[in-house]
């Protein structure tokens, strides 16, 4: 048995021996209840480590912090049980054990499970099956959120998309969409008399010169899947051309693509743009001196959310 500063690691054979000898201890499955109901170790109770009430759930099982508690999670790849062990140790539980390999390790050792469906759950989060299709951008749902900053703070707001198509061919995504620059809105100054002043400034030739260039556009040249992705990280790498203020520049950024229940797509991305590449130079210290209060940072943060029909 290996010992960590906060808990002890236990092999499946040792846990099995404890069970066969009817040793008094508490066995806790730290996975969500819907997983626990389907497949769990015999005699296990449930306290989900992902819930904020995890400490209270454990306390409802036992308030004796000197009891021997064995925790287990999904597999050797997941930190669920170890995180649970650290939490309990910080709460003062003295005898905490972690089953090495979790449920998967228990199964590989040849020991049984109980529950509604003891078959391993499909890891559907690791796959994204896109069908060849041309999707229309839903302009009512889709939105661009922008954030600009200076030394004193930040301003943020939105822009609307006017039209667009997303095409999937053999797992590669292409397409284009238009951005209506006249829909530029600010959110942080609502009710402030400076709000229309800011919007007027952003729409002027100091920034995006909307009167001359009312439309921006983005053409997706290629969006390809990232190998070995997980659902908490982007799964596609997007390459394309952004036309802004009449200037075309190539950009790349990671994005998360998902299929919704109705078969449509959702695409989400977060990235920074260097506005000066499109000749939006106002307040940039790379092009002007003695700016003082007029300094504006070059990078604009973009949060892009596209939904299709």
Reported for the largest beta sheet, the result is: 8 strands, antiparallel, barrel
Oligomer: single chain
Q: Terminal Cα separation, in Å?
A: 55 Å
Instruction: Report the portion of residues in β strands.
Output: 35-45%
Large-scale geometry: elongated
Lateral strand order in the biggest sheet: 8-9-10-11-12-13-14-15
* Helix content bin: 10-25%
Can you describe what's shown?
The protein is α+β, with helices and mostly antiparallel strands and 309 residues long. It is 17% helix and 38% strand. The chain is built from 6 helices and 15 strands. The strands form 2 sheets. Strands 8-9-10-11-12-13-14-15 form an 8-stranded antiparallel beta barrel. A 6-stranded mixed beta sheet has the order 1-2-6-5-3-4. Strand 1 and strand 2 form a beta hairpin. The longest helix is centred in the first third of the chain and has 11 residues. The relative contact order is 0.11.
Short description:
The chain is an alpha+beta fold and 309 residues long.
Write the layout of secondary structure elements.
Layout: E1 2-3, E2 8-10, H1 12-20, E3 26-29, H2 33-38, E4 45-46, H3 54-61, E5 68-72, H4 80-90, E6 95-99, H5 102-108, E7 133-136, E8 143-150, E9 153-169, E10 172-186, H6 194-203, E11 215-225, E12 236-244, E13 247-259, E14 265-274, E15 299-307
Parallel strand pairs: 2-6, 3-4, 3-5, 5-6
Antiparallel strand pairs: 1-2, 7-9, 8-9, 8-15, 9-10, 10-11, 11-12, 12-13, 13-14, 14-15
Features:
309 residues; alpha+beta; eight-stranded antiparallel β-barrel; 6 helices; 15 strands; elongated
């Amino acid at each position: 048995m290996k010992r960590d500063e906060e808990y002890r690691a236990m092999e499946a054979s040792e846990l099995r021996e404890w069970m066969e000898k009817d040793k008094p201890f508490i066995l806790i499955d730290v996975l969500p209840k819907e997983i626990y109901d389907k497949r769990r170790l015999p005699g296990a109770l449930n306290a989900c480590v992902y819930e904020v009430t995890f400490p209270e759930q454990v306390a409802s099982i036992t308030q004796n912090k000197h009891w021997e508690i064995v925790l287990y999670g999904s597999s050797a790849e997941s930190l669920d049980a170890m995180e649970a062990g650290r939490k309990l140790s910080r709460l003062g539980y003295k005898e905490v054990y972690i089953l090495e390999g979790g449920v998967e390790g228990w199964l590989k050792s040849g020991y049984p499970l109980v529950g509604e469906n003891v078959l391993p759950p499909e890891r559907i989060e690791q796959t994204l099956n896109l069908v060849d299709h041309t999707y229309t951008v839903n302009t009512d749902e889709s939105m661009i959120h922008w954030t600009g900053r200076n030394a004193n703070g930040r301003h943020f707001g939105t822009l609307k998309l006017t039209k667009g198509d997303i095409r999937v061919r053999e797992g590669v995504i292409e397409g284009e969409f238009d951005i209506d620059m006249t829909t530029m809105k600010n959110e942080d100054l609502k009710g402030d008399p400076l709000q229309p002043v800011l919007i007027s400034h952003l729409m002027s030739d100091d920034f995006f010169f909307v009167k001359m260039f009312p439309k921006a556009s983005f053409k997706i040249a290629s969006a390809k899947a990232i190998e070995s992705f997980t659902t908490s990280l982007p799964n596609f790498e997007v390459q394309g051309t952004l036309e802004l203020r009449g200037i075309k520049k190539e950009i790349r950024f990671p994005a998360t693509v998902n299929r919704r229940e109705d078969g449509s797509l959702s695409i989400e991305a977060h990235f920074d743009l260097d506005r000066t590449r499109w000749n939006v130079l106002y307040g940039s210290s790379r092009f002007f001196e003695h700016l003082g209060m007029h300094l504006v940072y070059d990078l604009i943060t973009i949060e892009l959310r596209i939904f299709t029909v």
